[in-house]
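Protein data:
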Amino acid sequence: MEKKIILSPQDKLDGLALLILRLGLAYFIFLWAAHKIITPGQYQFLAKHFDNVDMSVMQVYLVGGAQIALCACVALGVLRIFSYSALGVMHFFTILRRWEQFLDPFAVNAKGFPINRNPVIDLAVMGAFIALVLLIRRDHFSFGAWIGRHSRPRWWL
């Protein structure tokens, strides 16, 4: 006989908060990945400019496709340790490429427009990825949690 697991009201709130966080992060990265498919030339330029890497259009499509697949896994809560961490590591790579902007957050251009304020968003998103991974056991409304409740516990769910 299967043991029914009942979530407390606090478990339900935690699960709902993490569902919202997970969907928001997946959507955030999905937009960047989808643009690789829509405008691959822009990402060829960025790879050359920031990383000194020449990428073919097919390579940009493959990277974008892999990122979209990971976003789907995160949105569904599948292979949670792997998928959440993988998107977090990808985002961390973006932060590493822009680290100099963090040193001068109040810089303005000739027209007085702040030019380094967007990296603050990068830090907030990185914090959200870290929180998502640390709270993975409270992520009750995901397919990984559902499978875990209906089978032997597995660390990768």
About this structure: The CA atoms of residues 38 and 148 lie 37 Å apart. The first helix runs from residue 9 to 38. The mean pLDDT is 90. The chain has one domain: 9-149.
